[in-house]
């Protein structure tokens, strides 16, 4: 299997599973990713996803140049919608970057909301080395995530960034020893699952969509989403549980 998709309680685990080629993405993987993301988006029982890579060496080395690049050049070829482009998912997604995150691997991580990195993680955008350019969002997301000059260094000069530098610049939320990466991702996902799921999703939508808006437009979006939450059961349950000094029982409705 090019991809392992598992649901454990309210957490969906998505594992790129081609460790022999550093989890490089081929057409099969793209299709499997699309199906997994759509299932995660549409399943009311899962609230958080964790994306990681199999093996100890790589999160994802990017596109499989031998298999994917030739297909991308064919007339009429269209990639299935994914979190990098074309697929909006307002449930939170955590990237657990266990090693190399190069090219498309970096772009997959950038498309997640929270990024945890192993001490072994390395980030890079080597596309210009082959006279191509990032095509899954790095030219847009990376300069929004870290200072423009550092993003330009990675994209225009193909320089790599280690985990500690990524943490210093805010590209990742936390760096942990390799053996602690998945347990940390589990804890973070469980922590999110304790929160109001509809509030989390609305807040994510406001942040993501607001990045492309002016401040007044973003504030109007926030107000609209807040008003939408007022009509949900969870909106009533949260304050009531607080007043009654008990743990809320959210139902995502």
Output the keywords.
globular, Lyase 2-enoyl-coa Hydratase, Chain  A, domain 2, alpha/beta, 4-stranded mixed sheet, 17% strand, 10 helices
Fold and architecture overview:
This protein is α/β, with parallel strands linked by helices. The chain has 2 domains: 3-193, 2-enoyl-CoA Hydratase, Chain A, domain 1 (Alpha-Beta Complex), CATH 3.90.226; 197-243, Orthogonal Bundle (Lyase 2-enoyl-coa Hydratase, Chain  A, domain 2). Helix content is 42%, strand content 17%. The protein has 10 helices and 10 strands. The strands form 2 sheets. The protein has a 6-stranded mixed β-sheet, with helices on both faces. α3 crosses α4 (138-145), α4 packs antiparallel against α5 (148-157) and α8 (197-210) runs antiparallel to α9. The chain is globular. The two termini are 35 Å apart.
> Low-confidence stretches at least 5 residues in length (pLDDT < 50)?
none
Structural class: alpha/beta
Main beta sheet strand tally, sense and closure: 6 strands, mixed
Residue share in β-strands: 15-25%
What fold name stands as the CATH topology of the largest domain? 2-enoyl-CoA Hydratase, Chain A, domain 1
CATH H-level superfamily of the largest domain: 2-enoyl-CoA Hydratase, Chain A, domain 1
Overall strand count: 10
Give the C-level CATH assignment of the largest domain.
Alpha Beta
Overall pLDDT confidence: 95
Helix content: 40-55%
Widest β-sheet, arrangement of strands: 1-2-3-5-7-10
């Amino acid at each position: 299997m090019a991809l392992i998709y598992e649901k454990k309680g309210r957490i969906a685990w998505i594992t790129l599973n081609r460790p022999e080629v550093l989890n490089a993405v081929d057409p099969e993987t793209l299709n499997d990713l699309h199906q997994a993301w759509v299932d995660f988006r549409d399943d009311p029982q899962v609230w958080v996803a964790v994306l990681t890579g199999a093996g100890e060496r790589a999160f994802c080395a990017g596109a499989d140049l031998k298999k994917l690049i030739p297909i991308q050049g064919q007339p009429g070829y269209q990639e299935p919608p994914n979190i990098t482009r074309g697929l909006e998912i307002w449930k939170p997604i955590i990237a657990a970057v266990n090693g190399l995150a190069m090219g498309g691997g970096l772009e997959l991580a950038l498309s997640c909301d929270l990024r945890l990195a192993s001490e072994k993680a390395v980030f890079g955008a080597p596309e210009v080395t082959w006279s191509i350019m990032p095509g899954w969002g790095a030219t847009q997301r990376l300069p929004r995530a870290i200072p423009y000059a550092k993003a330009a260094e990675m994209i225009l000069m193909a320089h790599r960034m280690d985990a500690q530098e990524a943490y210093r610049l805010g590209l990742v939320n936390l760096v942990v020893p390799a053996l602690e990466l998945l347990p940390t991702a589990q804890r973070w996902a469980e922590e999110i699952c304790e929160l109001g799921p509809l509030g989390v999703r609305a807040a994510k939508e406001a942040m993501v969509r607001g990045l492309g808006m002016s401040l007044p437009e973003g504030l109007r979006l926030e107000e609209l989403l807040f008003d939408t939450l007022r009509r949900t059961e969870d909106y009533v349950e949260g304050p009531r549980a607080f007043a009654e000094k008990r743990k809320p029982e959210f139902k995502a409705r």
